Structures are given as C-alpha cells and as structure tokens.
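Action item from last meeting closed. Structure (299 res):
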C-alpha cells in the first residue's frame, strides 16, 4: 500500500472519476474518447493496486463501493490541483500581461504590499499594477462596485459578502513617549491606557473603529485629542508628546530608532488582526489578477 503513488496514475484516476460521474463504463468511455475495454482495464488496475473493489458492475451500469467513494473524492482533489498547476505554469510560460487595479487599507499598503508587489513584478514584468490607499470600508465598496480587481483590508463584518482569502496577520502595539509612566511596563491592556490622551486616525479607519468597539465593551470612553491621516503622522505626534497611539507593530518598529518612543505589546486578542484579499468571483478574474491573487495568498 505504501507504493500506491507508483501504482496509480492520473489517467486512471481521471477515467475512474468519469465512470463514477456517468455511473456507466460505456458512457464514461464515450465521454473520454476511449474504448470501454480500456476504461474497464484501468478500473481493474486501480482495484489491484489497492486490493479492494471500487465499483460493482451491474447489468445497467455500475455502483460505487464505499472505498470507491473515498477514492473518488481524493481523485477529484488531485485533478483539481493538477488543473491549478497547469494554470499557474501557463501563466509563467506565456507571461501574464495587463493592468491590475488594487485598493488596500493603510496597514496593508504600508507594511506588506510594497515588498510583495515588487517580488511579483520581478516574476511578471509585463504586468502593470495600480494601487490606491482607502479605508477598509472604502475597499469593500470599491470591490462591490467592480471598480477594482482585488481589495486588501481587515477581516471585519461585511467581508463575508465577498470571496476572501487570508493575506497577512497584523499585530497592534501601544506606542508611548519615552519617560511616560506606562513606558516602564512590559505589556499593557486597553484598561491601562483607555483614560490617557491618545492620538488617533480618522473616524472611518478600521483601527479607530476597532478601538472604539473595544472601549465600549470595557465601559470606557477614549480621549482622542488629535486625529491625523497617516500612520507616519501618528508616530510623530507620539514622539512630540501629544499622546499615546495604537499602531501596527511593523510600523512602530520603523520609527523606534529615530523617534523618542517605546513600543509596548498589547496582551489582548483584539490586538491581532487578520488582513484578507477580497474579490467578487475568482473565475471572472483576468489572468494577471488571478496570478497576483495566488502569489499574495500562497506566500
């Protein structure tokens, strides 16, 4: 049984799938443009390889045995993966071309997309990529209205309306000025800083809405004294002492050596956010967009 991979081949599995779907060896042979005797021989070879019957031959067709049903499911999965492989190889062989339109939220564009897009374009130099930064809600609206090929945003309520695939994980930390009393802590929770003066993003930002939801659940009201439009500005406001800020860890690490700040881990589950790629229908994606989707979500 351990040599099964050497005894089964794709042609046999494909013919077995056809027999299961047609419930008849003759019809399966006609569909696959092959002699019925050849199909029957392939089924016999599968049965010899596994040592168990996969079908029962009957006067008006066949019935699939329980072990045959199991092999059928696995055969479908194998064939599907080979088809994906064929599509991917075709994209590399022919070279995907065209223009891909992407919208992403601030966290994805600042932290992850630059390196991923640069690597993708080294593999697909003929593809042009247009990227626009939007809030998470605007990303979903753009994909809904079919204005773009792919959107990247946080996994928030509303994402379930689209096809979506995990992209990256985004960890949030608290940025505080050096010398602030909280700077002596090793980890913090929302209760530790909910009453502090904060610097935040605009009201439509997913990060702002997340903090407001968590504060409401805690029975607290956030004291946001300054609102800015970028993560860069957010960090600089903390540097000059205007308040504390919750920022993505990778963003904070970019500034830790140049600004007078410290990063504190937040030891609560909401501080781990998932970024996803969203789109309307995979089968309607152009080859270039499908290639980028695969690249971003299989890394």
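Sequence:
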């Amino acid at each position: 049984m351990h040599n099964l991979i050497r005894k089964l081949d794709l042609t046999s599995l494909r013919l077995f799938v056809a027999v299961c779907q047609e419930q008849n060896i003759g019809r399966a042979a006609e569909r696959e443009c092959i002699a019925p005797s050849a199909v029957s021989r392939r089924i016999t070879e599968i049965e010899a390889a596994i040592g168990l019957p996969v079908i029962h031959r009957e006067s008006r067709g066949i019935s699939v045995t329980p072990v045959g049903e199991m092999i059928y499911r696995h055969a479908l999965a194998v064939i599907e993966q080979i088809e994906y492989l064929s599509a991917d190889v075709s994209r590399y062989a022919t070279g995907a071309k065209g223009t891909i339109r992407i919208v992403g939220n601030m966290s994805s564009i600042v932290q992850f997309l630059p390196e991923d897009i640069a690597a993708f374009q080294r593999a697909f130099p003929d593809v042009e990529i247009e990227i626009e930064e939007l809030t998470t809600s605007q990303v979903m609206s753009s994909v809904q209205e079919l204005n773009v090929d792919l959107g990247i945003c946080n996994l928030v309520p509303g994402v379930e309306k689209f096809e979506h695939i995990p992209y990256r994980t985004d960890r949030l930390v608290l940025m505080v000025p050096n010398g602030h009393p909280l700077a002596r802590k090793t980890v913090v929770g929302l209760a530790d800083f909910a009453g502090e003066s904060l610097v935040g993003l605009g009201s439509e930002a997913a990060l702002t809405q997340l903090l407001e939801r968590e504060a409401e659940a805690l029975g607290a009201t956030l004291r946001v004294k300054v609102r800015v439009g970028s993560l860069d500005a957010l960090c600089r406001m903390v540097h000059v002492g205007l308040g504390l800020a919750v920022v993505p860890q990778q963003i904070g690490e970019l500034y830790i050596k140049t600004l007078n700040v410290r990063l504190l881990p937040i030891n609560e589950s909401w501080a781990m956010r998932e970024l996803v790629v969203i789109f309307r229908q995979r089968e309607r994606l152009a080859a270039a967009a499908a290639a980028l989707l695969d690249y971003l979500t299989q890394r």
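Note appended to the action item: The radius of gyration is 27 Å.
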